[in-house]
Design brief:
Blueprint lengths: L1 E2 L6 E2 L43 H15 L4 H36 L4 H32 L5 H38 L4 H15 L1
Antiparallel strand pairs: 1-2
Amino acid sequence: MIACFKCGHENPDGQKFCSCGATLPQMAPSGSPSSSLDLDENTNYLKPTEHFPSAEMLAMAWALHDFLEEGGELDHFLEVYDGVKARLENYNQNLHQESLEFITNDRNIDPDDDYPKQIQYLVVRGSQLSEDGIAQVESFLDALDEDRIEAETGKEGVAKIVQANDHFLLALHMSMARAETIRAAAKANGEDIEDLVKEQLAAREASE
């Protein structure tokens, strides 16, 4: 069964759209970022409720708008988009799995702690959205090469990339807030969180 990210409804495997109209995530090859979502039906997952301020995302959206609606140059959009694409692809290919390993370690410490589940959902969903968004923008650009303008495809692709950025930033802000809470609690107990982290790393290296 596939859970809809919009309404939570369970849908049969292989179905592309939920009854609410939302596009459903599809099964991915083993080992890809999209295969690691592992939703818990008893958890209400957090989602960004607003866009995080991002000059890069805003520049990309406006550059596409200028090209489609104002007769602007495509090169301006490509310049911004290529930078965004490179950053997201670098994360998905080189950093995503490492992030999930850290999250899994947190989940193993306390399986009942919802916090790591929320972080995992946000980073995996962000990775999915970034892959889907890039694929749609690339389809939009391919159509332009064939003298076709598929405006909605381009807009939807950029929208998904912006949503991916929102998911990543919410996960980052939550992680920073949690780290600060732990640091404050350790300080109140007369402990140095940096020393504790070093001890944990040394213990893990010794066990390996």
